[in-house]
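Show me any protein, keeping tokens residue-aligned.
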Amino acid sequence: MKSAALAMAALTLAAMAAAQQAGPAVPPPKPAAAGGPRLAVEPPSFDFGKTLQNKTLQKEFSLRNFGDADLAIASVTTSCGCTVADGYAKVVKPGESTHLQVSLQTRTSSGKLQKSVLIKSNDPTKPLYELKLEATVGAPETK
């Protein structure tokens, strides 16, 4: 009985020593903030499909705030000069939305065209949203 108690004490001490050598326990990840602004873009991306060179393609997107605080849109930039994004409100109240008008010029591009619109906001979960645009550009028809 004494030897069993000694063995149990030795095991307990060994376990405690091993736990100390392993370092402090890693805290669980913090949950995402419950409140604040939240950006949703509809549609989240867009494929214009097949088109021709030297065309201007347009699409209107909706930027919606599904959070519980004002969404501040700091900037909207594009990946190149052939893409323009404008017409949006700088502040979107909770539950409201604003429109974003995007124009893409195909110019002399040929084949798969991929561009981005970058929306920078105060959404703490995604401060930089990338809106992806695609089109397949063919050469103009010859007569």
